[in-house]
Amino acid sequence: MKEKVTITIDKKILRNVDAFIDRIYIRNRSQAIEYLLEKRMDENKTAVILATGPSENLRISKDEFRPTAKIGKTTVIELAIKNLRQNNFKKIFIIGEQPVLTSIFNLIGDGRRYGISIRYIDEENSPGTADSLRLLKDELKTTFLVVFSDIIFNKLDIEHLWKHHFKHKGTATLMATNSSLIKGGKIKPVMRSFIRIEGDTVIKAFEKQKANKKVPEDSLSFSSLFIAEPEILHYSGSSLENDVFPLLSEKGFLFSYLSSEGEIHIHSKEDISLVRLNSF
């Protein structure tokens, strides 16, 4: 959706802007300005990693939590940070309870060695994922990405998800995939969040399934990763999946990007073998 604006620009800067007009891909001054703005904004994006919930629920061994689980010579959180950095996410917030945050900090520190900035947000008692995200209501002023801390998502196309988000007027864009492509949960099952899509609009956001319920082969699920606008922080409800997403869907503000790949959930030591089999 385009909006007409009036701006004042120095003549020298404008001359440099006009140099980008090639009459093929960039046909006029407006497109040149839009191209340069998009390029600049793409170089310094914001991401939020949710390592939320009771820390003991995230523990997979005496010394490891889900995000800090060892994958060969690296860990789940290190893979996530490197993937985000490769996609130009340079400002990252990690939300979780103190024991989990301490474990993560011992691995990746403040992010400087990755060329990024990492801030840790201690959650003492947040009932749900939406409540956790609202801890950043004074920090998130632009479009941002949210990803859960216990997934391997190297095969998911974050760049196209990001670009697709700007093609509609929605508040959030979910990464979606066929439920059969989501792996993990060998010991502790993955509680999938089913969605129904018409085109790229999410017309129904379902509550998480029960652990013993059989997953329909042709169902679509939320892949634990989404892009959102700051307005999402103003919607009520404790849970993103059970409260906020269904409300956005009812209002027509929830969209999706369908991926041909799925993520891997690391809920126990047994799930790590799936990562090795997928050659990450």
Are there runs of 5+ residues with pLDDT below 50, and where?
none
- Counting H and I runs of at least 4 residues, what is the number of helices? 8
Summarize the helix and strand pattern as letters. Answer: HHEEEHEHEHEEHEEEEEHEEH
Approximate strand percentage: 25-35%
**What's the overall geometry?**
globular
Straight-line distance between termini: 38 Å
Total beta strands: 14
- What is the CA-based Rg, rounded? 20 Å
Overall structural class, as computed from helix and strand content, comes to alpha/beta
What does the largest sheet look like?
A: 9 strands, mixed
Mean pLDDT over the residues: 89
Name the helicity range: 25-40%
Written overview of the protein:
The chain has helices spanning 11-18, 29-42, 76-86, 98-108, 129-133, 158-165, 240-251, 272-277, and strands spanning 45-51, 70-71, 74-75, 89-96, 117-122, 144-148, 151-152, 172-178, 183-184, 193-198, 201-208, 220-228, 254-259, 264-265. With 280 residues, it is α/β, with parallel strands linked by helices. Strands 1, 4, 5, 6, 8, 10, 11, 12 and 13 form a nine-stranded mixed beta sheet that branches. It has a three-stranded mixed beta sheet with strand order 7-14-9. Strand 4, helix 4 (98-108) and strand 5 form a beta-alpha-beta unit.
Essential attributes:
nine-stranded mixed β-sheet, 27% helix, alpha/beta, globular, 280 residues, three-stranded mixed β-sheet
Brief overview:
The protein is an alpha/beta fold and 280 residues long.
